[in-house]
Write a structure and sequence with these properties.
This protein has 277 residues and is α/β, with parallel strands linked by helices. Helices cover 42% and strands 18% of the residues. A hairpin with a 6-residue loop joins β9 (255-257) and β10. The longest helix has 19 residues, at 79-97. Bound molecules: S-adenosylmethionine (SAM).
Length: 277
């Protein structure tokens, strides 16, 4: 399949799936490869035949939607986020969470678990000693069952760990025959299969990481709906982390950039109640 043909097909199909072509431009080859395999398994000659197939079989749009998942992730992605979480955000969340004894976190679109385990490890090694009375509960969701099975297995190729600082790597993993397994101490993550368009954990959360999912791959109308639902699951004063090239929709008035950080937004704290004096 020629790249130009697949590009034209994606530019036609993605908006119909309420997805964004701009987000897919750089990663289109992965999706094109899957579409080529799908054509082969359906016995279709080319993309024109596939368009006709889609026109007569509504259920095929679901198949095509599933081919559009991008599984790319890695441990400690965007290190600036973790620097800001350590220096400003997690200490503030820990102070607010102290009476409840735990920070509630959600990795939305967690792929194979890299982000959720990074957070567990990072908290245990770098933050927990400073906040001994506070725990971190992590829920991680994704729509893709295969990625979640990998997440639960917790075994990774060395390339996934390239950006992880050495102290976290030594503390967090056991290496066996070239595969790195997340240590049992850091596995207390609840993985759930949920499509964000249909279901989300109720929360409320102190910290939500929704990076390189909604704000990259979906069309603006869906972004607004989903990000409003996600922001609504944050506790007042809670933090939303987005991807390096992402910005929440301007309509989300309950969020403001977390001062001194990039990629992190804060849900406005509830205004103090009048003192009654
Ligand atoms: C590019 S990965 C990003 C992983 C991780 N958040 C990160 O930044 O490294 C996108 C992930 O979002 C998931 N995803 C995409 N759309 C989704 C949806 N509607 N519901 C749940 N998960 C979704 C994909 O299956 C994939 O695992």
């Amino acid at each position: 399949m020629r790249d130009s043909d697949c590009t034209a097909f994606l530019q036609w199909a993605l908006p119909r799936l309420k997805r964004s072509w701009t987000g897919y431009r750089k990663v289109r080859r992965l999706v094109c490869k899957r579409i080529a395999q799908r054509l082969k398994s359906l016995g279709l000659a080319d993309l024109d035949a596939y368009r006709r197939h889609l026109a007569t079989r509504a259920e095929e749009w679901r198949e095509l939607d599933a081919l559009c998942g991008i599984p790319i992730s890695r441990f400690y992605r965007d290190r600036g986020v973790f620097d800001a979480l350590a220096s400003m955000v997690l200490p503030a969340l820990a102070a607010a969470a102290a009476p409840r004894a735990a920070i509630d976190a959600w990795s939305a679109g967690c792929a194979s678990g890299e982000e959720a385990y990074t957070l567990a490890l990072f908290w245990a090694v770098r933050l927990q000693p400073r906040f001994p009375g506070v725990g971190l509960r992590i829920i991680a969701t994704d729509g893709d069952a295969e990625l979640l099975a990998r997440a639960r297995a917790g075994r990774y190729a060395p390339s996934s760990l390239k950006e992880l600082p050495q102290d976290l790597r030594s503390a967090g993993f056991e290496e066996r025959e070239g595969t790195w397994r997340v240590g049992d101490r850091f596995r207390d993550v609840e993985f759930l299969q949920q499509d964000l368009r249909e279901r989300m954990p109720e929360g409320p959360f102190d910290l939500v990481l929704c990076r390189n999912v909604v704000l990259t791959y979906y069309a603006p109308a869906i972004q607004e709906t989903l990000m409003a639902r996600i922001a609504g699951r944050l506790r007042p004063g809670g933090a939303l982390v987005v991807g390096a090239h992402e910005v929440p929709p301007p309509g989300l008035r309950e969020l403001a950039a977390w001062p001194g950080t990039r990629m992190i937004y804060r849900r406005h704290p509830v205004p103090a109640a009048p003192s009654g004096d």
